[in-house]
Specification:
The chain is an alpha+beta fold. The protein is built from 4 helices and 4 strands, in the order H-H-H-H-E-E-E-E.
Length: 163
């Protein structure tokens, strides 16, 4: 009688192990076959690229004659209408041309659709600047913002959408 009970306990133990293995395989299959993971990775990659791209762009030297000003400084000068920087074609034209050239060599080559929008404080009386082929209205896009302080109560806001 004692050996019979021992065999039943062993069978129950084996059944529990089989059930646990089946549950483990179920969860592995569920999470490894999920298509959302790839989408989340892509969105995380877009967020990281847009953040790093804007940070790098705004800290890059603008290349205006006789100045070591960055693109951040160029936009601040543009809003304040001071004449400390002399750039070929004027500040706005130089900024647009330079940024378009940088986009052509980076985001366009990497085949990203993008839209860069720059809005200025209302007191500056400057129209917003928009560059890029744009994103469809409901594209899965990641937006990164960059704020540049000004002498006005509000900042210059750069918005880069990657899709």
């Amino acid at each position: 009688m004692f050996t019979h009970k021992k065999a039943q306990i062993e069978m129950i133990g084996l059944a529990i192990i089989v059930i646990l293995l089946a549950l483990g395989m179920f969860f592995i299959a569920k999470f490894s076959l999920s298509s959302d993971t790839g989408n989340e990775v892509q969105q995380g990659k877009q967020q990281q690229i847009s953040t790093q791209f804007l940070n790098t762009l705004m800290s890059t030297k603008a290349g205006c004659v006789g100045s070591s000003a960055t693109f951040t400084g160029l936009l601040q000068e543009y809003v304040s209408e001071s004449t400390n920087l002399e750039c070929e074609g004027g500040l706005e034209t130089y900024f647009r041309t330079s940024v378009k050239s940088i986009f052509n060599q980076t985001l366009d080559v990497w085949q990203y659709k993008y839209n860069l929008t720059i809005t200025f404080p209302p007191q500056a009386n400057k129209d917003p600047i928009s560059e890029g082929p744009g994103c469809a209205r409901y594209d899965n896009s990641k937006t990164q913002y960059f704020f540049i302080p000004t002498d006005y109560p509000k900042s210059i806001v750069l918005e880069l959408r990657l899709c």
